[in-house]
Design goal:
Helices cover 34% and strands 21% of the residues.
Amino acid sequence: MTRVKICGITRLDDALVACEIGADMIGFILAQSPRRVSPKQVARIVSALPNTVRKIGVFVHHSALDASEIARDCGLDTIQLHGTPAIDAVDSSPEIIQAFAGATSADDIIASTADFVLLDGCRAGLHGGTGQRCDWSLAARIASQRDLILAGGLTPDNVAQALSHVRPYAVDVSSGVEFAPGHKDIQKTKRFIAEVHSWDCRTNAAISDVSGDGLSPRH
């Protein structure tokens, strides 16, 4: 099943609702952004979330070591690193997502030593969170070889199309389910997650129909 990451969370209520309606990951921006939150805010929200949901801190120009220290203080499971060309993971590091945006080759992304890779849309001077769609053809090539988190310009209206093109491990949405930066729209969030689950169900049903159960003939 495709995982869903709701990113740019700034409010406890939004985080709780996202978890209730099926989000698998909750992301917090610990870098310059309209959705920036402090480590203290993150710790307060994280403490109220279920253990079944992965909590992710988003960092820009941090080493894995520095980000890991902040993550431990906040109770985060995973760190997402933007603008960090090399991953200097240490034994005490949590899971690491290395984020890429812009002119990066598929081979370089596939070769990342991080646990997961994320492909985002690109805008000059920004390392992510642009609301711009990334190159889905590039993403599909990467997703065929790595656990890829697809980000960039996803909305309830286009996420099924993105899934059909790319077939990623997870999808990441922030501005696509907001009514203002850092403020999630509950109905858009529900629609987004429902579209992902619906696509998964249709795809699994199609696979079952083609393969059959091995017992009865297909018509």
